[in-house]
Structure formats: C-alpha cells, structure tokens
Amino acid sequence: METSLHRALKDHYASRGDGAAQVEVALGEYRIDVVADDLLVEVQHGSLAAIRDKVRVLLKQHRVLVVKPIVAEKLLVRFDRQGGRVVSRRRSPKRGTVLSLFDELVYFTKVFPHPRLQLEVPLVSIEEWRYPGHGRRRRRRENDFQIDDQKLVAVHETHPFHTAGDLLRLLPRKLPAEFHTGDLAQAMGIDRWIAQRIAYCLRETGAVRQVGKQGNTVLYRRAGKSRRVA
Description:
Layout: H1 4-14, E1 22-27, E2 30-36, E3 39-43, H2 52-58, E4 63-67, E5 70-79, E6 86-91, H3 101-105, E7 117-132, E8 145-161, H4 164-167, E9 178-179, H5 181-188, H6 192-205, E10 208-214, E11 217-222
Parallel strand pairs: 3-4, 4-7, 5-7
Antiparallel strand pairs: 1-2, 2-3, 5-6, 7-8, 9-11, 10-11
Helix pairs in contact: 5-6
C-alpha cells in the first residue's frame, strides 16, 4: 500500500520541472513514479535492491533519477486503534544521515554508477502513525504495533550523486592518501563494521582502489577517475 510519504515525494519531484511531468506512468511492463520529458524518476523509500533489476532495464534506453529519501527526523504518533484518537507523540531517537546511503548502496553497486543514472538523497522529516498490532509474537507490548501511514513533514538538504567520484565527497579530508577501514572509522567517528561497508561500496563502484596491505589490512587510495559504465 502506498504511503502518504511516497505520494508527497512523487508530487515534489513532479513539480520541480516546467509542470509537464506525469505521475504513475505505464512504460512497458513497468510503472514509473514520475516522467518528466525524457527523465524517469523512481522514488524508493524501501530497499534499493527491490528496484535494482527494474532500473538496470530502464537504463538501457532512458535517463533515470533514483530518489532514495533518508529519514533524518521521525515523530512517532501513536493511536489507540486504527482511525482512533492520538494517545502519544514522541521523537524517535533514530536519526539518519547521508551516510545511511551506504546501507542501501551495498545492494546497488552493479547499477551505480551509470552515465544515464543519477542518485538523489533528500533528508526528510516525517510523521509515522501507529496503532496497536495485537500480534501473537512474544515481545514487549509497546513494540507490538502496525504502521498506518508515514507522512512527509519537510524536505531538508538534498545530496546528488552522478558518478562514483561524487561519493568521495562524503569522506573526511583528513584521511591519509592510503587508508584502511580503521583509519576511515576513526576519521568519521563510526564503528569499524560500518567503515568496512563504506569501503566495499567505494571499491565496487570504482571510487577507490586497493593498493596493497598493511599486515593483513587492505589499503585503499582514491581512484584517479570515476568508473563509467557504458
């Protein structure tokens, strides 16, 4: 079922052009969120893996913009029942950042980069409406809920990525010329396993290359040129 968040983002991107954009357009076996002239726009709040094959096919003949919103702020609105009254509102402690892109890009490195593909990452604030789930799973009652809807509150800064080299903008400048995932974790203030995921995405997209080892640890260097896929 489509959420209000998805509909609002479709309208947002449809309104960015000259007003001639269309939403929910059938194209062969696919349905495209927004078509603006020769640009196909796909808004994907879920996993990028779910649209990987679709985008790969569309890129054969079309320019494609994949919009991957990241929730920077979420207000949890709890109802006593579906369609009932609000019983609580609270801020979720979870806050996404543009680095959250790598959580999904790990499944998308066989598609991005591509000369006809652009990734765009808007940071958004949303409300998530919940009501009691009354499920049979054995877990704490406050965690037993159903999501009724997600609603867009605001679109904050947007980060575009055309090439693998654009991903390097997310790396801190103080990294050494040759670095390993420990250096990356320390410079970015993140866990080592997150740094390993980032390094994997950078390597697979061609943003960095392996240049050797320091003991058993792989060393990387920023690539001279971004990989372009024909």
